[in-house]
Every structure is written in C-alpha cells, then in structure tokens.
C-alpha cells in the first residue's frame, strides 16, 4: 500500500517554504507584510504539520484573525 504522507524529515527548509507560502498568500489577496505573530504561526505550522505552501496559506487565511 502506497501512502502520500511525506515524513517531516523530507520537508523543505523553512525559508524557501515560507517564500512559497507568502507567494500563495499574495495570490489570495494578502499583500501586507507578515507580523512576527503571523511568522511564528507559520513556523509552528511548518514545524508540526506536513502542509504544502498552498495548504498552509489556506489554513493561514482560515485561522488567523484579521
């Protein structure tokens, strides 16, 4: 049985991943610079979950207050 799960050890480094998330966010209309709180939230998301940049951007939009 094949799984699509990618262990965290195979995830890309945070910096390039964050750049891709920011690019995805800009496509969703989030053009403001990220606050420290928002960057910390994204770091925790990257560290604990194996989300693609697109998935992380969508989660960010759904979960972060305006």
The topology string of helices and strands comes to: HHH
Structural class: mainly alpha
Gyration radius, in Å: 12 Å
General shape: globular
In whole angstroms, the N-to-C terminal distance is 42 Å
Q: In DSSP terms, counting alpha (H) and pi (I) runs of 4 or more, how many helices?
A: 3
Helix content percent band:
55-70%
Uncertain segments of ≥5 residues (pLDDT<50)? 1-9
Give keywords:
single chain, 66 residues, mainly alpha, 3 helices, 0% strand, disordered N terminus
Describe the fold and architecture.
Helix 1 crosses helix 3 (53-63). By secondary structure, this protein is mostly helical. It contains 3 helices and no strands.
Please outline the helices and strands.
Blueprint: H1 14-27, H2 36-48, H3 53-63
Summarize the structure.
With 66 residues, the protein is mainly α.
